[in-house]
Write a structure and sequence with these properties.
Blueprint lengths: L2 H11 L3 E2 L13 H5 L28 E3 L4 E5 L2 H10 L5 H7 L6 E16 L4 E18 L3 E20 L5 E14 L3 E2 H5 L6 H4 L1 E15 L9 E9 L27 E13 L2 E13 L11 E9 L2 E8 L2 E9 L3 E11 L8 E11 L2
Parallel strand pairs: 1-5
Antiparallel strand pairs: 2-4, 3-4, 3-17, 4-5, 5-6, 6-7, 6-8, 7-9, 9-10, 10-11, 11-12, 12-13, 13-14, 14-15, 15-16, 16-17
Helix pairs in contact: 1-3
Length: 371
């Protein structure tokens, strides 16, 4: 057996056991800040969150920023232990270690938005612009009782450009557009006997690839309702992958041995409302948001998989976050050290089609340098 292939594929991208296929919602770009807040982002997103969220929120970025290295690492609760177990095993015992992971779920993601540039509220304070090169490598796998390994390793890379504008008196309405150009390389599921033969992990020989050019549109609107208990209310609506997210552009086929036509990233509809208050006790910038997201990107799952509820409050350099993602509790903490911001989060992601079916508890951290 090939030890490097085992450690890399099973340690980083994980192995799970189930009779039924896992069907999580796949998203090309995520946010640690959003994770901590129940994965709300269309009513609350800032900076890099808007590249794959609501482009209209670019008008709410508080100041210009040049983003430097900002690595994000995300793992499921058992991934680190699986890596250690397989790495410590002998060549003859690696398959036994693989079998011992039955019943565990592992997930991994590495992500960058580097370089990135944000220029909000220019041109009389009405226009906002943003540009970023986005890179994401994520993987999931499931060892089924049929001896098939249902695994998915997905690599996305490409630029995104956002333009947004404020409209109406008091800038009550903001609208935005993000253009994406992206390359995707994705692996396929394989039989466990391919693993024994040292095959199955090569995206370059058996994977899918393709290029995408697509657009996101969105808007936010300050709701014309009276202030309630010091809260102001704002609604948001966004559509991601307006053209259907099809990876069919042959100009992006960089791996000659990989098959073309990676599966599309489906068009998704997203909406929500947020309540904001500038001061609450010792906290500032307090908010509570309710969102329904990934409508159209739910893979036939329950509507409750699209429900997100979250809040954030700031105290000096700290941001405290909590919420519910698909019914599972989330928590997060942010530290703003000016040129360095650090975000931690834990959340539960639903792997089944119904909420409460199979929770995947995940942990994420991001270190972001910026000027």
């Amino acid at each position: 057996m090939r030890p490097f292939a085992c450690v890399f594929a099973l340690g980083v991208f994980g192995l799970t056991s189930s009779v039924h296929a896992y069907q999580p919602i796949t998203r090309p770009f995520e946010s640690v800040r959003g994770f901590g807040m129940g994965n709300v982002r269309y009513t609350t997103g800032l900076y890099e969150q808007n590249f794959h969220g609501n482009p209209a929120r670019a008008t709410q970025n508080p100041k210009w920023k040049i983003g430097l290295l900002d690595p994000m690492i995300e793992v499921s609760s058992s991934t680190v232990g699986v890596i250690g177990d397989i790495a410590a095993s002998s060549d003859n015992d690696q398959f036994g270690q693989i079998a011992d992971t039955a019943g565990r779920n592992n997930h991994g993601r590495f992500q960058l938005s580097f370089p990135s540039f944000f220029l909000p509220n220019v041109g009389g304070g009405k226009w906002s612009y943003a540009f970023g090169l986005l890179t994401s490598v994520q993987g999931d796998a499931a060892l089924l009782s049929t001896f098939n390994i249902e695994e998915k390793v997905q690599i996305d890379i490409g630029p995104a450009m956002t333009i947004a504008r404020k409209l109406l008196p008091d800038d009550a309405l903001s609208v935005g557009l993000t253009a994406h150009a992206k390359y995707r390389l994705q692996s396929q599921s394989f039989d466990i006997f391919d693993l024994i033969g040292g095959q199955g992990f090569s995206a370059t020989s058996s994977g899918l690839q393709g290029g995408l050019i697509d657009f996101d549109i969105g808007g936010t609107y300050k709701l014309p309702i009276p202030e309630l208990l010091g809260f102001n209310f704002e609604g948001a609506l966004a559509i991601n992958n307006l053209l259907g997210g099809k990876y069919k552009n042959s100009l992006f086929n960089f791996v000659s041995t990989a098959r073309t036509a990676a599966p599309p990233q489906p068009r998704s509809y997203n909406f929500g409302v947020v309540a904001k208050r500038e001061q609450l006790a010792v906290f500032t910038d307090f908010l509570v948001a309710l969102e329904f997201t990934d409508l159209g990107n739910n893979g036939g799952g329950s509507i409750f998989r699209t429900v997100h509820l979250g809040s954030e409050a700031r105290w000096k350099l700290l941001a405290v976050r909590t919420g519910f993602n698909q019914g599972y509790i989330t928590a997060g903490l942010g530290i703003d050290l000016k040129i360095l911001s650090i975000d931690f989060a834990t959340y539960g992601e639903e792997l089944g089609l119904n909420v409460g079916d199979r929770q995947d508890r995940r942990f994420a951290v991001r270190f972001a340098f910026a000027i």
